[in-house]
Amino acid sequence: MRKILAFFFLATLFLVACGKSEDEMKRMSKMEKARKDSIYRAAFKIAVMPTMDCLPLFYAKEKGYFDSLGVDVRLPMYYAQMDCDTALTGGAVEGAITDLVRGERLAKKGTPLNYEIATNTYWQLVANHRARVRTVAQLSDKIIAITRLSATDRLAAMAIDSAKPKEEVYRVQINSVKVRLDMIHNNLLDAAFFTEPQATAARIGTAQAPAKNPVLADSRKMGVTWGVFAFRTKAMEEKNRREQLEKLLKAYNRACDSINKNGVRHYADIIKKYCQVDDRVIQSLPSLKYPKAQPPKTADIIKAKQE
Cis ω on the peptide bond leading into residue 56 (within 30° of 0)? Predict the structure, then answer.
């Protein structure tokens, strides 16, 4: 009987100890989560997309430039420009890759922005070769993909107004660059706007179905330079955020120097990791130059404001 009582006594002690251990683990888990959340909130966050205009940030992150300057930079990835904008306006990030058309609209709606970096972004309207169109004028009764109230929406309007197709051109909103590219490759769209490297991927088709898809319009020939990294003005008024930004700009400029010296193909591993394209696309990329951080030209901002 004593042995049985002793057994139950020890078992009770064991269960109590386990209970305390489990409670302690939960408490420590909450503390650790709170610590990580605090660190993340203090970090300098920039919403990025899997596009070549973000390459200097990707390279600076991979090379440790931010760490060497003592700034914790996070690069949350999004596949749609509108999702980047939502993160920016909601205060989830301090900055984001965007365009001046979107940026001016966000400012008008109550989120003033600082345009600290004008990027080398350009947009191409790439047609599916099966649509059998070679010019914008031939897009009558065709479907093209854009993002509403953005540079691609404005560029589409400019190109269509200039070419004057006989019938209506249907602009549909496909926000995800990944989905948009897949739809071109699977012959579900007649044409779509892309930046690099998706523009190259759209032009050459897939490894399984190579193609020579024509470019119908190019923003560089339309006289606009609208790509930017924008930062919330309110956040930049804080001393520590401004200091973080200054360090980020130093790292960005250093990355631009390296990329311009070696060429984009030298960074194939980084491009594959962040932009999710294969060697075939990377080898087909055009030569890209990255200007150091500077604000966009006033003329480009004025043009972006025009409805």
Answer: no
CATH number of 124-222: 3.40.190.10
Rounded distance, CA 145 to CA 161, Å?
17
Q: Return residue ranges of the chain for CATH 3.40.190.10.
A: 43-120+225-301, 124-222
Q: Which helix (H) or strand (E) holds 170?
A: strand 170-173
Q: At what angle do helices 151-163 and 100-108 cross, to 10 degrees?
A: 120
CB 142 within 8 A of CB 131: yes
Compute CA distances 233 → 37, 74, 94, 159, 191, whole Å. 23, 19, 9, 33, 36
- Provide CB contacts within 8 A for 179, sequence distance 6+: 79
Overall CATH class of domain 43-120+225-301: alpha beta
199-248 per-position pLDDT tens digit = 999 999 999 999 999 999 999 999 999 999 999 999 999 999 999 999 99
Distance CA 182, CA 127 (A): 13
Q: Which residues pair with 192 in a beta bridge?
A: 126, 145
- Reported pTM: 0.90
**Would you put residue 273 in left (φ > 0), alpha (ψ -120 to 50) or beta?**
alpha
